[in-house]
């Protein structure tokens, strides 16, 4: 049920962190995988690393997910070169620490542009391709536990706002796309030790006592969930958000 042989997957934000590990898991499960990110050099390096992970093809595609034209071009290339798209993981995201009293409108919008608009544009383009193909598909959006709680002590109100929007966007898409046999779910990671979180090292010792499991998570501890959501094992699951945070949001 977890086999992805014959499937064509797209993972954005795949030059590092969660996206890179998800792409590797899909390759190991038998899929052909397109990886997308803004920086070509990083993509090429990661593509080379992933090529040894499985028998599937790895296609690097440079894309800024905040730009509609680039997102459209990305899906056109993926469908043309891989022969379609069955799985789309909308994972690209950014974060910054800034108090809301000091936050400019431009800074607030900068986070929304990638974390919300980027997810919408990528998921929409992928869904359109899936409708044209006529065989359905799966969309998985990376949200965050920050869409459920407000992080402390760091001040990331714009990030929390963006991830809450992703969770609700996922539900709306799930309802609208169901008739096309497209399932849409989201994953809400907690504190995972990725390149996005490593620069916030000053906060790690303050987070860990609040995590019942007593530590930050690893990116590879999320990949089983992404594989489940992409596979036939979750064939009756849509519109769900799954929190995987070591128990942080239980308090």
Provide structural commentary:
The protein has 251 residues and is of the alpha/beta class. The protein has a single domain (8-188, 222-242), classed as 3-Layer(aba) Sandwich (Rossmann fold). The chain has 7 helices and 7 strands; from the N terminus they run E-H-E-H-E-H-E-H-E-H-E-H-H-E. It has helices spanning 17-28, 40-50, 68-82, 105-133, 157-177, 201-207, 223-230, and strands at residues 8-12, 32-37, 58-62, 87-90, 137-142, 182-189, 241-244. Helix 1 (17-28) crosses helix 7 (223-230) and helix 3 (68-82) runs parallel beside helix 4. The mean pLDDT is 97.
How would you sum up this structure in a few lines?
With 251 residues, the chain is an alpha/beta fold.
């Amino acid at each position: 049920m977890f086999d992805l042989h014959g499937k064509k997957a797209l993972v954005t934000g795949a030059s590092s962190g969660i996206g890179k590990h998800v792409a590797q898991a899909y390759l190991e499960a038998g899929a052909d995988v397109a990886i997308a990110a803004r920086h070509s050099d990083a993509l090429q390096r990661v593509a080379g690393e992933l090529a040894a992970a499985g028998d599937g093809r790895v296609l690097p595609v440079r894309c800024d997910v905040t730009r509609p034209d680039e997102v459209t071009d990305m899906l056109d290339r993926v469908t043309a070169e891989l022969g379609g798209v069955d799985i789309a993981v909308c994972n690209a995201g950014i974060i910054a620490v800034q108090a809301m009293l000091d936050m400019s409108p431009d800074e607030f919008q900068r986070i929304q542009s990638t974390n919300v608009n980027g997810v919408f544009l990528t998921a929409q383009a992928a869904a359109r391709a899936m409708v044209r193909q006529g065989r359905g598909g799966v969309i998985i959006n990376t949200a965050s536990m920050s869409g459920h709680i407000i992080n402390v002590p760091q001040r990331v109100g714009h990030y929390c706002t963006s991830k809450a929007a992703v969770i609700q966007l996922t539900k709306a898409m799930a309802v609208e796309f169901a008739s096309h046999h497209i399932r849409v779910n989201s994953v809400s990671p907690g504190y995972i030790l990725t390149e996005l979180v490593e620069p916030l090292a000053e906060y790690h010792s303050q987070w860990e006592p609040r995590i019942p499991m007593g530590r930050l998570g690893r990116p590879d501890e999320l990949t089983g969930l992404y594989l489940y959501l992409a596979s036939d094992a979750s064939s009756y699951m849509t519109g769900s958000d799954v929190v995987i945070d070591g128990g942080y949001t239980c308090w």
